[in-house]
Design a protein that fits this description.
Shape: globular
Structural class: alpha+beta
Oligomer: single chain
Number of strands: 12
Largest sheet: 4 strands, mixed
Helix content: 10-25%
CATH class of the largest domain: Alpha Beta
């Protein structure tokens, strides 16, 4: 990595001798690409609903006529994750216990959008300030993706926060036993393959945010 403001380059590349995926012939056992029609919803019922989650059980018929009953999907508020960089090229991270993983994990500051939030930028500013005490001089929406297209009905927004500085007191909610860490950005990138950030969505968020900032080159190497 070059100094602050330089370009970072991932170490991956195309294996020698392999044709690009788009140019490879389709094996005879692979069906031709087809745009299947959306599934037909025959019935729907609520399996679980509270302040955190809305689980729906649908009876659906797929494009080939197969009946799937029940098929569960999950509605959450949209999520926002913040890639916050300081002027000296450090990244603002949080370490906290995650009961799903049964482990203390290092993560990006993140949270759910409130109904009153006008945009993911509002959510990002609030979550960054409440979880870490940092405030950014500039916020940019880097990407909006689906966390799981098979079952989740919400979206996950990545916000790039530049010029982050510690300027406020934290305001942690119940269940947020958070320690703030600001490691060098280069160290975090180097630790991604070994699981330094174990949250898969946060890894993709970091890559996309750095690419949007012109800090990471996503082009393939020959």
């Amino acid at each position: 990595m070059a100094g602050s403001g330089g370009t970072l380059s991932p170490s991956g590349g195309v294996q020698g001798g392999s044709a690009p995926l788009a140019n490879r012939p389709i094996p005879s056992t692979m069906p031709a690409m087809t745009d299947f029609a959306p599934w037909k919803v025959l019935s729907t019922r609520s399996a679980l609903r509270d302040r955190w989650i809305d689980v729906t059980a649908d009876a659906v018929r797929d494009a080939r006529g197969n009946l799937l009953d029940p098929f569960y999907t999950f509605a959450y508020p949209d999520w926002v994750q913040v890639v916050a960089l300081t002027e000296d090229d450090r990244i603002v991270l949080v370490r906290q216990y995650r009961h799903g993983a049964r482990a203390r994990t290092l993560e990006l500051p993140a949270g759910a959008m409130d109904p009153a939030d006008a945009s993911p930028l509002d959510t990002a500013a609030r979550e960054l300030r409440e979880e870490t005490g940092f405030v950014a001089s500039e916020l940019r929406l880097a990407a909006s993706l689906h966390p799981n297209t098979a079952t989740h009905r919400n979206r996950c927004h990545t916000v790039l926060a530049l010029g982050a500085r510690r300027m406020a007191d934290t305001a942690h909610e119940a269940g947020e036993d958070i320690v703030v860490d600001t490691p060098p950005l280069a160290e975090v990138l180097a630790g991604l393959p070994s699981g330094l950030l174990p949250q898969a969505m946060h890894v993709s968020a970091l890559v996309l945010a750095l690419a949007s900032a012109g800090r990471l080159d996503l082009s393939l190497r020959g």
